[in-house]
Amino acid sequence: MSLEGDVLEAARALVAAFGRHDTEAYFDAFAPEATFLFHTHGTPLRSRLAYRDLWTSWESEGFHVISCRSSDQHVQGLGDDTAVFTHRVETAVRAGGVDETLDERETIVFRRRPDGRWVAVHEHLSPAPTTP
What we know:
Strand order of the largest sheet: 1-5-4-3-2
Number of helices: 3
Number of strands: 5
Order of helices and strands: HHEHEEEE
Distance between the termini: 34 Å
Shape: globular
Radius of gyration: 14 Å
Largest sheet: 5 strands, mixed
């Protein structure tokens, strides 16, 4: 497969795990040293463990992902072992007993490990613009 194809497959697996609220598979898609910037959280998360702890606190408050749909996907290769994946995500979630649909844009930086597996090393999530 090509770099683009490999990264798209890694991103597809990550988004699918998120969309079915498969916590183990979702967090396995990230390197331990991955960092995260979410518009819904006031501070950067500096590791997968920090995000996992936040996720667990959300779940304790009734958070659950119902579905996630990715569109407008783009892969930008940066050499042989790094790529930037951007897309738009429509996510249905339940939080505090209320269902809502989120429209966001996301950037995920992937790195190829020595074993050939692509893992996410950074994620940045922002709200989608309300105007084109």
